[in-house]
Amino acid sequence: MSADGDVAVLGVADHRRGELRDVSFELVTACRELADAVGGELHLAVVAGDVERFAEMLDVEGVDAVHTVDEGEEFNHDLYAAATAALVEELDPTALVMPNSVNGLDYAPAVANALDLPLVSDAVGLSYDGGLEATREMYGSKVETTVAVDEEPFAVTVRGGEWPPTDAPGEAEIRPFAFDADESAFPSRVLGFEEVGGGDVDIADAEFLVSIGRGIEEEENLDLIYDLVEATGATLSSSRPLVDNGWLDPARQVGQSGKQVTPDVYLAIGISGAVQHVAGMKGSETIIAVNDDPNAPIFDIADYGVVGDLFEVVPALIEQFE
Amino acid sequence: MKVLVAVKEVAEATDGFEIDGVDIDRRHLAYGLNEWDEYAVETGVRVAEQFDDAADDADAAGADTEVVSVTIGPERAEETVRTVLAKGVDRAIRVWDDDIAAAELDVAAKTRLLAAVAAEEEPDLILTGVQASDDEFGATGVSLADELGVEWAAVVNRVEVDDALARARVHRELEGGVEELSEVDLPAVLTVQVGSTDPRAASPIGDGPDAEPIERRGLADLGLDAGAVESPFRRTGASVPDRGVSTTYFDGDTDERAAGVADLLRDEGVVDG
Questions:
Q1: Which of A255, B82, B206, B237 is deepest in the core (most CB within 10 A)?
Q2: Is B104 in CB contact (< 8 Å) with chain A?
């Protein structure tokens, strides 16, 4: 495949500590669909680290070219922002697509502002018919909105887990992009990484998780959940607020900043289903939700639901196993 | 030293909300301080307090400290701004006028408004929440940093500012239980993650009749015109998401519903008995 036509889409890969992140391959799928609708080529960029190895892995179906920026070891937002902006100026794509990852949040808005591109962040759907229309969630995922952008080129960040990954081998051209950066002159420096939320419980291996959220209200009320866990032999996990409050060990946290879990059964109690939580548990085989708010977004992904007060439902459920 | 905290009054969907056109019917919206911004306020007040304490012992660079909040929002938002003043913010600015009210406030528009305020205030540190809970863009802070030509860090859960106000060390909360440790030159914009601190309750100070007035700014006051809030975005639809999952609800009284869940757990083979 030759890559010398108009570039419809430039997508930027996401990697960390030597590994391409899953969102990179999902982004390829989103980008290819968009490039077909716009009518043009899909180019990818991979910046920093072992770019040659990354580029070979990113050479998947539908990618016309992968541009490598061989500067730096790890993500640094000054490097990413400058390299991405330079590539956009060189390639002149209709759409610049970046991941809505934590690192994406750390450079995409800077690139968009620097290049004066309108930015649609955290898109869960993209369509193009002479102009972009993006689907986004609002109000804690309770509402899905569509927004049209009357300007080109434009920038988009895409949510992880919304598009299937592309992994069939491709025929992309790999092109080193000459970009000189003096990292020592950058006004920001990445000093290292720290693992948090170790602990001795492995919620990722559990086949039945009872997961508790903000609905529990008070730390003392957790006794009720401990009783349920004991009665059912489940493993206890939680959403973020309980860990933030210091009520539960960080090792029990499910979600974007916690662990990804895929149990046979995930029983979510008093969990509203914020996107950051859902990112960690939507791969569960069967999801059961107990919540007193019938509009809670957790019911959008739950296979089974009980709309009701957990302080009534949980004691009744414990009784079923006594 | 001066900290500027950008806060937003957000709309929350109330139970049983309905969609009207391209948004939630206004009657089903409740307003309050964005949860992420609550943590940004607390972080700002704590950094200022550290400089106050340091100034007592030595002649630190930031002997005079001030925490200023800025919000873009209608008069209704003053209630939220008062909450912020009661949580340790010294002065508050509210940006609004008829042109802003008529605009679709996208990231670029908010960036221009906040940049104009920041240019006036010349803060050492600008803080805001990672995202607003209503429109969930998560982009304004980093965009603002680029506009001002200053440094930034997104999704921060720990901040240490050095005495000379030259740089900040931050922890950025990445996915999957990993934090990145970084250093950024000041001034900088940091977007603050929830759970990073323990926000204080609002104190009654700042609410009384002697309370500092909230300073108001319109486009003209900021040296801008209506072009600053023009947007290429058009909202075209709103709906309650259908993720293609059909949820089976358990009916009946509490015991019947609990029995339904118990039978299901037995059928799935994850519990005995």
A1: A255
A2: no
For B105-154, what is each residue's pLDDT tens digit?
999 999 999 999 999 999 999 999 999 999 999 999 999 999 999 999 99
**Is residue A196 one of the residues assigned to a domain?**
no
Whether B7 is in a domain gets the answer yes
Q: Which of B142, B179, B156 is nearest to B43 (CA)?
A: B156
How far apart are alpha carbons B2 and B63 in whole angstroms?
10
Tell me what pLDDT residue B211 has.
64
ipTM of the complex: 0.91
Domain total of chain B: 1
| Residues A214-219, mean pLDDT to the nearest whole number | 96
CA distance B272 to B78: 56
How far apart CA A59 and CA A65 sit, in angstroms, is 8
Task: Give the model confidence (pLDDT) of A98-108 as tens digits.
Answer: 999 999 999 99
Q: Judge contact between A310 and A216, C-beta under 8 A.
A: yes
Would you call B185 an interface residue with chain A, using a CB distance cutoff of 8 Å? yes
- In this structure, the answer to whether residues A208 and A174 fall within a common structural domain is no
Instruction: Give me the count of residues in chain A.
Output: 322
Distance of alpha carbon A57 from alpha carbon A201, whole angstroms: 33
Inter-chain residue contact A306 with B269, CB threshold 8 Å: no
The Cα–Cα gap between B83 and B204 comes to: 9
Give me the total of CB pairs closer than 8 Å, taking one residue from chain A and one from chain B. 285
